[in-house]
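Justification of resources, computational component.

The compute hours requested in this renewal are based largely on the per-chain cost of generating structure records like the one below. Each record pairs the submitted sequence with a full structure-token output. That output is archived, and it is also reused by downstream analysis tasks.
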Amino acid sequence: MSAERESSGGLVRGLNAWDATLLMMGSVIGGGIFLTPGDVAKALPVPGWILAVWVAGGILTLAGSLVYAELGAMLPETGGTYLYLREAYGALPGFLYAWVYYFVYNAGGVAAIATGFAKYAGAFFPALAMNREVFRVLGQPISSGQLLAAGTVLFLSATHYVGVKEGARLQGVFTALIVLVMLGMILGGAVSSAPVPAHLGEPAPAGQALEGVKSGAPPAITLAAFGVAMVAVLWSFDGWNQIAAVAGEVKRPQRNVPLALVLGTGIVTALYVGMNAIYLKAIPALELAGVERPAEVAALRLFGAGATWVIVGAILFAGFGCTSANIAPGARVSYALAADGLFPRPFARVHPRFRTPSFGLVVQAVWAALLCLSGRYDQLYTYSMFIGVLAFAAAGVALFVFRRTRPDAPRPYRCWGYPVVPALFVVGSLLFLANTLVSQPRESLAGLAILALGVPVYFGMRRAQARRRMLSAR
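The structure output for this chain reads:
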């Protein structure tokens, strides 16, 4: 049924391998690598451990990419994680994930990235600052920065509305630009001379960023501290699996989806580790713990004042491209749900000219824009992170399920390192879940509550589907 709905009057396979790879990378490279290194250094204020945790995050993400590469090649259709959970465990688990994903996880993430883009845009244009109030709605202040974030969501959603290729190509341009800037900073920093004296930068002198740490005495590194740092690292890698949701629009998906996942993850990991090496060259580890925008400080010390504006511009490119890349998958998941009769039928509507899930894109755009204006996106996104990682673990287990229940299914790509690699991914995801549950119990339980709200919705959609079948049979 899925193959039919995507071949006749439905979605079209318009993305080549390069488009898919840039879409995967664009979903990941947002503001994380430019903002979270300070948080990582607070937990692990030792250079070797800082690089180690970024490498570990890349390895865990690569393990997940290898798992999704087999799943995506085996089931090369629209839906991604929803599709894998549905096929492995049944319709209800798949629906519950997709319910949270569409309305909370992805929409909240899009709003968060767009707002981050708007905050940095305020550095270039003060009139667009987040604290510049324009008007009020029901007592709620609306700033020019919030309007910019909402407008960005609406504009980029429009580019995806007029065609999957058009939206992906625009996003790909910005992703390619940020990759080139990061490569330039890594290569330039590697050959540059000693940094400019620290007093020209913003952060406090080395040794003062962390209280209780004596200068010259290496801080104790604990497993808990490594786990805290890993949370920030994995947040920076978030979005790596988004390309699986649009597999139904990728040419030669059995080849190109695994290629985009594995190649994209490898490139992003190399860029992230390289950027952190440059940060540490310019900023001592103890000092890095007190730096909110390490890329700008490192560029200032290594290349001079003019380079900081290049970095700010690059962060704008990253935010713009990442917002765009994360818009595409959400509407594809709602499309797959509706095509299976588990969501209102308009979500399965495909635009007759543009061949995109137009209704799902419009609803998502309006909802994410409203989240930008409300300022509540961070809470929703935090609540759903627990569910997102739980779904990753379940998808990893699904690989073992399919190997047992569908041994003869076509597998154009088989997960390298099976069963060790998928087991590593599942165990790593479960450890992350345990750490999140301990460190953020309220947010995790709120996420589970949102998940539970989908149960009555699911059975309601099932009853509506049964009624439609009865009426059509008469």
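DSSP finds 18 helices and two strands in the chain. Residues 31 and 373 are 20 Å apart (CA to CA).
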